[in-house]
Predict the 3D structure of the following.
Amino acid sequence: MIKNGFEVKNKKRISYLYKNSKILKYKPWLGDLFSFLYDSIMKKSIFPKKFEASIDDHFQFLKSVLKDVHNSSILELATGSGNISEILPCDNKYIGTDVSEGLLKIAYKKFSKKCFKDYTLYLCSADQLPFQDNIYDICICNLSLNFFSDVNSVAKEVSRVLKKKGVFIGSVPVPEKNKKQSVIRGNLLSENDLKEIFIHNGFDFTTYEFNNGALLYFKGILID
């Protein structure tokens, strides 16, 4: 499953990547020392104050989208604290990635309490995935595309690791839905910008008819 050029060392369910015998390190946006605050910050600050959105509606919508996904190979970019474990049916094979070791440790605790039998968490970046080509059925990325410095590189990597007809499911704040011009961290791309990037990388791009503050919900089906 791991492509040439990477070495992997596992500690519990977290996999650490090495190149030339040197561990790859990343700088998380929150900082690993504050990972324990992530869920609280999202619930009490980011969703109501920045996104002007409902976190409960967010998770309920994702649950409705994923409820019929079974026995599939799932990749998640920016796993965060592992809240997808509350949504995704546990008969799927799950691979989670994030640049924050602290968040992955929290995610591990959440997944370990659920019925998932096949899951692994990788400390790695979305624009340099260590996986072989054409192995995943679905890729999920929630609330994180604005933190990636080069979304085109991320979309290119996703198109590489997804199987043909594989599906990308994403949610991200976009400037045109940010009605009160709240200060949202990262680089906000418009719906048209995202559509252009994903089409350029071989996806059929469609949006979900679901309104939740500044957030855009969309999917891409790999057709090339």
